[in-house]
Design goal:
single chain; mainly alpha; 12 helices
C-alpha cells in the first residue's frame, strides 16, 4: 500500500487535503502564467494553432520530465503492460489532446467567468462516470449535495463576470466538452493506475497527448513567433507544474473515491480569482470571495464526511 493509499471510504486524511489543495493551486497558477507567456512568445489570442503548438511543447515536456522521474522511483513496474498500451495512448488523446484543444478554443470564445463555471462541471461528470466504472462509487445524495454546494461557490465568485450572456457553441459548449474529457480521463486513469505505475502512466499519456498537440499545432501553422529568457522560464515552470499536478492527481484518483478528490476541483476558480487579484494588485479579501470559499469548503466537507454509525446498546 502506498503512502497515499488507505483513504478510500474513510474520513479524509490530512494527506488528501494537502495534496489535493496543492495540486489545484498549481493548476490555478497555470492560467495567469499561460497568459503571461503568450506575449513573450509572440502568440496572439486570435491564433489558436500557435496556442495548441505551445500547449504541445508544455505537455510533451511534462511527459518527458515525469518519465525521467519514474526511472528514479523505486517500483516493480518499469514499463506499461502490453495490453494497456492502447488504453494509455487513448488516455493521452482524451485527457491531454482533446481536453486542451477544447479548453483553449472554448476559452477564447467566452468570458473568463463563464469558462470557470462550465469548467467546474467536470466534478459532476467525474462523480457520474465513476459510478459507471466502479461499482463501489455509487451516486449518493450526500455526494450530489456536496457538489451542488461547491458549485454555488463557483457561481458566487463569478457574479458580475458576464454570466448573463447567451450560451455559445464555440465557447461554452467546448469548455463543457473539455470538462467531460478531463472527467473521463480522470476515471480512466483511476482504472489503469490500479495495475500500472502512476509515474509511467502519467508520463506516457502526457508525452503522447502532447506530441499530438504539437503535430496539430504545427500542421495548422502554429509556431513560437518569439523567444525570450523570461518566456523560457515560464514555460519550464508550466512543464514542471503539469508534471507535478497530473502525477499527484493520478495518485489521488487511484487511492481515494473519485468524488472525494474531484470536489477539490471547485477550488480552481477561487484560486484563479485570488491569484489574479494578487498579480494585478486588486483586493482579494472581499465578502464575495470569502463567501465563495466557504461554499466550496462546505461542499468538500459534505462529500468527504461520513455518517456516524449508530452503536446499539448491548442486549440486557
Amino acid at each position: 500500500m502506498s503512502a497515499l493509499s488507505g483513504g478510500e471510504n474513510r474520513k479524509p486524511q490530512i494527506s488528501l487535503f494537502i495534496l489535493a489543495v496543492f495540486c489545484i493551486f498549481l493548476w490555478g497558477t497555470a492560467i495567469p502564467c499561460v497568459k503571461l507567456s503568450y506575449p513573450l512568445f509572440g502568440i496572439l489570442s486570435s491564433a489558436p494553432f500557435d496556442q495548441i503548438f505551445f500547449a504541445g511543447i508544455r505537455f510533451t515536456g511534462a511527459g518527458v520530465v515525469t518519465l525521467l522521474i519514474s526511472l528514479f522511483v523505486k517500483t516493480e513496474a518499469r514499463a506499461i503492460q502490453k495490453h494497456h498500451i492502447l488504453p494509455v495512448l487513448g488516455l493521452g488523446l482524451v485527457q491531454t489532446t482533446a481536453q486542451y484543444i477544447c479548453f483553449y478554443i472554448g476559452l477564447s470564445n467566452t468570458t473568463g467567468a463563464r469558462g470557470a463555471i462550465f469548467n467546474s462541471v467536470s466534478t459532476f461528470f467525474t462523480v457520474l462516470l465513476a459510478a459507471v466504472f466502479f461499482r463501489a462509487e455509487k451516486v449518493t445524495l450526500r455526494k450530489l449535495l456536496g457538489c451542488v454546494v461547491g458549485f454555488l461557490g463557483i457561481i458566487v465568485v463569478n457574479l458580475g463576470g458576464g454570466l448573463s450572456s447567451r450560451f455559445t457553441l464555440n465557447g461554452d459548449l467546448l469548455i463543457m466538452a473539455s470538462s467531460l474529457f478531463f472527467a473521463l480521463g480522470s476515471v480512466i486513469s483511476k482504472k489503469l493506475s490500479q495495475n500500472e505505475n502512476p509515474f509511467l502512466l502519467t508520463g506516457s499519456q502526457l508525452f503522447f497527448g502532447g506530441l499530438v498537440l504539437l503535430a496539430i499545432g504545427f500542421l495548422g501553422g502554429g509556431r513560437l513567433r518569439a523567444v525570450s529568457p523570461a518566456g523560457i522560464a515560464l514555460l519550464l515552470y508550466l512543464i514542471a507544474l503539469s508534471a507535478t499536478a497530473f502525477t499527484i492527481w493520478t495518485f489521488l484518483m487511484r487511492d481515494y473515491e473519485a468524488a472525494s478528490v474531484s470536489i477539490y476541483f471547485f477550488l480552481l476558480p477561487v484560486f484563479g480569482v485570488l491569484l489574479s487579484g494578487l498579480f494585478l494588485g486588486e483586493q482579494v479579501l472581499t465578502l464575495r470571495n470569502l463567501a465563495a470559499l466557504l461554499f466550496v469548503c462546505a461542499g468538500i466537507y459534505v462529500v468527504n464526511s461520513r455518517p456516524r454509525k449508530t452503536v446499539l446498546p448491548p442486549a440486557a
